[in-house]
Amino acid sequence: MSSGASVSALQCLVKQLKVEAGVERIKVSQASAELQQYCMQNTCKDALLVCVPAGSNPFREPRSCALL
């Protein structure tokens, strides 16, 4: 690898590290509490916890066509 390519790669790495250093971070305990609160607020909308009405279920078995 040439020195020009090496310098360019290192500049990209420094740029990425600066972006990552600027990311705001929170404690795991705070994140888990917020996640738990979000889940509790949205349980009534969760299709895995509340049954989906049969008419609006996109995964229901297709009806067969019967000829008379």
TrEMBL record:
GO terms for biological process: G protein-coupled receptor signaling pathway. Transmembrane segments: none annotated. The keyword Transmembrane does not apply. It is found in: Cell membrane. It comes from the Eukaryota. GO terms for cellular component: heterotrimeric G-protein complex. It is a lipid-anchor. This is Guanine nucleotide-binding protein subunit gamma.
